[in-house]
Amino acid sequence: MIQSVKIMLLGDIAVGKTSLAKRLVFNRFDADYKTTIGVNVLSHEVKLGEGGDSDAMRLVIWDTDGDFSHAIFGTTYVVGASGAVVVGDASRPATIEKMSSLVEAFESRFPGRPVCAVLNKIDLAAPNVDFAGSASFKIREFVRASALTGEGVAEMFISMAQSIRRRGV
After folding, report:
1. Which 3 state secondary structure label does DSSP give 39?
2. Can you give the pLDDT at residue 67?
3. Model pTM?
4. What angle (nearest 5°) sits at the alpha carbon of residue 141, between those of residues 50 and 106?
């Protein structure tokens, strides 16, 4: 039996949360931007190894509206979350600060559950930008990704699934 886990996709408005989810699930990028209202739920099975169903995991991705911000933690949407992917836009510094704040809030609300900070849209960011140099950037580790090109997307979700399996959440 394949284990199903709930992954929250959090971040500011227009950082590419939906685009990352669609890149993973459908392996495509839609240039037509449509704002998420409330929550969209997508499902995708990832392989964690070569051992058949025991090495697979179904990710149930809850793609949230960026308007929620920290209020998301007071809703029923987060109940049962095994982990979170928190997204910032590498070309918009204000969203990176929000990403850092949401990572801290998720870690506080769900201690011990994995959270992955993702800088999306690296294809738009200036090369050699040191995001971690900002005083407001408190995240120890983050992933660089591009929903447009697909760079880092599948690997990031697989790493999240592996972390959930290791932690038993």
Report:
1. strand
2. 84
3. 0.89
4. 90
